[in-house]
């Protein structure tokens, strides 16, 4: 701002919005603009953009609600209200037409407000079995009422323990991973950048370790194999090789 008389964030976002075609350079500008933002403002903007799309980006919204601490979700809601003069919870409630993901988001919002009691291993095991018995362990559609009940009545810490127990008991995760974004198994093209940027200074060390253990390849190498060369790939590789304790 001092040197060039313009706001860097605004410049990057206008560069992204003024292009009719998505290129690696535009993706890099969009990702960099996300990194510059305060994390709570970033999530508020991602939430608003997700809600404004013609096909609401439920994946982005769910990422925020399941990947942030309850205290952070409250700050995101404050940032959302300050920037857009709207309530995030209310915008989710008024989503039309009705959609199953809307129910999940409302349940996740409730789980962030759940009582923060000590995490119970017994409850986690019971919930894991209920999820299995009403999901892949039975024929027919998943009993969503059970899933929504668990999501809305358990704290985020308790839910994480439940998913850990699920993997321990049944040998695989209940949820999908970052790998799907890299291999192009999602239509949400911003998913990879969102995950990388939001976790760059939080637990990237752990993500690198788990990714290496699960897929037998370094995260940076997977990015290089699946993303065309250019600024966007270089940016993602820089995040993938970043250590959490660096500023």
TrEMBL record:
Record-annotated membrane-spanning stretches: none
SUPFAM superfamilies on file: Annexin
A UniProt-annotated Pfam family: Annexin
Keywords: Annexin, Repeat
InterPro entries: Annexin_repeat (IPR018502), Annexin_sf (IPR037104)
Superkingdom, taxonomy of origin: Eukaryota
PANTHER family: ANNEXIN, OS09G0453300 PROTEIN
Full protein name: Annexin
Organism (species): Ilex paraguariensis (yerba mate)
């Amino acid at each position: 701002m001092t040197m060039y008389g313009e706001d860097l964030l605004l410049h990057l976002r206008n560069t992204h919005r003024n292009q009719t075609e998505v290129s690696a350079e535009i993706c890099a500008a969009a990702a960099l603009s996300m990194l510059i933002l305060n994390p709570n403002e970033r999530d508020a903007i991602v939430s608003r953009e997700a809600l404004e799309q013609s096909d609401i980006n439920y994946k982005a919204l769910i990422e925020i609600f399941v990947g942030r601490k309850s205290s952070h979700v409250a700050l995101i809601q404050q940032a959302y209200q300050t920037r857009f003069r709207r309530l995030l919870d209310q915008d989710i409630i008024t989503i039309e037409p009705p959609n199953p993901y809307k129910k999940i988001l409302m349940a996740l919002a409730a789980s962030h407000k759940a009582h923060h009691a000590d995490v119970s291993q017994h409850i986690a095991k019971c919930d894991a079995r209920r999820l299995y018995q009403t999901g892949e362990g039975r024929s027919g559609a998943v009993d969503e009422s059970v899933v929504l009940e668990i999501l809305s009545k358990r704290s985020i810490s308790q839910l994480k323990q439940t998913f850990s127990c699920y993997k321990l008991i049944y040998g695989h995760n209940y949820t999908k991973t970052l790998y799907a974004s890299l291999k192009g198994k999602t239509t949400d093209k911003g998913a990879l950048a969102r995950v990388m940027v939001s976790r760059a200074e939080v637990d990237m060390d752990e993500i690198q370790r788990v990714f290496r253990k699960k897929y037998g390849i370094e995260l940076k190498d997977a990015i290089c194999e699946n993303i065309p060369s250019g600024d966007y790939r270089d940016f993602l590789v820089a995040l993938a090789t970043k250590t959490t304790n660096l500023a």
